[in-house]
Amino acid sequence: MGFRPFIYQLASRYGLSGFVINTSDGVTLEIEGADGHIDSFFKDIIRDCPPLAYISSIEREYISPKYEKGFQIEESKRGDERSTLISPDVCVCEDCIREMMDPFDRRYRYPFINCTNCGPRYTIIMDIPYDRENTTMKKFKMCKLCKEEYEDPQNRRFHAQPNACPKCGPEVTLWNNKREKLNCDDPILKAKELIKKGAILAIKGLGGFHLAVDAKNHKAVVRLRKRKRREEKPFAIMVRDIEDAKGIAHLSHEEEKILTSKERPIVLLRKRKGNPLSSEVSPKNRYFGIMLPYTPIHYLLLEKRGDIFVMTSGNITDEPINIDNDDAFRNLKDIADYFLIHNRDIYLRSDDSVVTFMGGKLRQIRRSRGYVPVPIFLSERLRGLPLVLALGGELKNTICLIKDGKAFLSQHVGDMENLETFQFFLLTIRHMSRILDITPELLVYDMHPDYLTTQYAKEQTDIPTVAVQHHHAHLVSCLAENGISGPVIGITLDGTGYGTDGNIWGGEVLVGDALRFRRRAHFEYVPLPGGDSAIRYPWKSAISYLYKAFESDLLNLNIPLFKRISKRDTEVVLKMIQRDINCYPTSSCGRLFDAIAAILGLRHRVSYEGQAPMELEMISDEDIKDYYEFGLEKEGDRYLIKISDLIRAVVEDVQKGIGPSVIAKRFHNSIIEIFKLLCVILRDEEGINRVALSGGVFQNRIIFENLSLKLQQEGFEVITHSLVPTNDGGLSLGQAIVGGLRFKEGLI
Ligand code: ZN
Ligand code: ZN
Ligand code: FE
Q1: Across 57-71, 84-98, 718-732, which has the greatest mean pLDDT?
Q2: What residues have a C-beta under 5 A from ligand 1, the ion?
Q3: What is the pLDDT of residues 344-382, one digit of tens each?
Q4: Alpha helices in 627-688 (DSSP H)
Q5: What residues does 239 pair with on adjacent strands?
Q6: Distance from the CA of 525 to the center of ligand 3, in angstroms?
Q7: What CATH number does the domain containing 674 carry?
Q8: Which ligand sits closest to the CA of 90?
């Protein structure tokens, strides 16, 4: 990470002798010199630390002088401890870009240019220590000039493991979808021309393949949607620079900083009206997912001002992103017209990260390339845990490993609904355990009996296992990244999670800490016809919620839903509910959003998870401040949120002809009021003034921003996610902490 050359230069400046060596524990240095110089040396280490290095602690020990001359960088040895932190992949730096654009430089237009401060890391590392031999660059032998740079401590490529040039390094080639190589001088230039003509290109990048089309070419975007069988989920786009981003979206100063950060995530940015992009890039959405170029190839592709390309992950919908050239040709030949590939192997795939800026902070939506494997540093109270492997949930899966007070979340693995994703999950477990040198002592998984992760856990017989409740894991994930161990009032709102009573939870107020919880409030149960399969059909949820409010009279309602769903279909589902056939009680918040979206006629069927709530959020009229009444009923020490009044009020508004954007916002306001009120009640009863917000629903900007604000106005301390996703992508962190603590306390 450029640390050893930095130390070398610093030691030389102060005339210190000794050596520096990479060990698997981090970096060890031996220095000898005048006291004053040594103190300044240590001060400078902290102050001038290079961009990719992270100092978690410095330990100093005095040894007898050896009267050596000069300072050396020594070859690293393979240690038995392997806790060196591995750098994430970061974007190509400005120095490298400058060289790449210089016609007199030997790396002019060379798309694999990198240096000590930039380039691929996590995705090319096969083992540790981080040396060229342990990366996928192993197969390229450095030429004389590259080797000189690599060995020269004064050079900015000193010990840059992926160092390469056109003479000795990887190369790009262009192919058609029959796997015939196209002969051209500059494959990248040619690829750009093809995109501009409307072709779909598969482009191999840092962590996998992208599918690229010209974002201004409506026909091409539509064709990509058809071929990828991705009907409506927004496509990410890549723009050349900040200026081009500003041309299509509104950017705050903070958003600009995130967009240009070395992690280069996809940032959700509010669309500018009248922007020139195809309406199919991000339909029914007020936001674009925008990223800037992060590899040299991207810079060469987007040389021209105003060029904006869709860059969506190269996969068949619902399968992991393709990394291997053979796999890509096999899987993407019916989608892409051409392939821009290269021969630097990707060892571990990593999707683009997705972030947004809400409530004054960066929020992770998909934490992957650029951020992984930087650990979450745990607070003192959460230290001393065993070596834990937490398996995450079913959707947006990530895994988490804990070692020495650090929690390592994996890159985004994906939705565990097919063999490919499951295999990627297994590979990720193996790989992360190896590079972090962790042999887990405890396995933690979700309580849901049908999850693939649960089945995997049940098959491991040589290690203790423990199941953690889904929403408790959400809550503790939020606590852990904020360095808190509890107790708090935890509002956890999401689509689905298996409850301790065997029902589907999702609209929960838990009171508890990192060890245990009590369920103090939730939405009253509603029967979900077909269980989790109803997720794809919001109209089925709608029938169920309407039944709660109107019973069989719902058939006589004049609402937009019934213009889309036939009377026969409605009656079939109604019978299932009335006779309790294949119905599963749920307190889900996501399904309530689904139901409202369906009742309003917005969406009766969805093509991706969370689509109906997202569209409901997007049409909401921000000026509407009032809300619908709701009922609360106390049952034992638990509050049930009654939804009948709310549903009746929504239907009444619909029948009065009030517009969906007004109703949608009133509904949002109602959710905010319900949970604010519950917090006030529970504060009185429990004497807790701290509220944590977690679960996928908090990706909803209206809910997140307004509920946090209102709670703060009521005097609450509000704890939220920032480092890990509030959705199921952050689940594994909470699981690991809960499981690890229970193990430590002897409760397993
Ligand atoms: Zn560089
Ligand atoms: Zn070379
Ligand atoms: Fe969840």
Answers
A1: 718-732
A2: 93, 96, 115, 118
A3: 999 988 999 999 999 999 999 999 999 999 999 898 888
A4: 644-655, 660-686
A5: 308
A6: 17
A7: 3.30.420.40
A8: 1
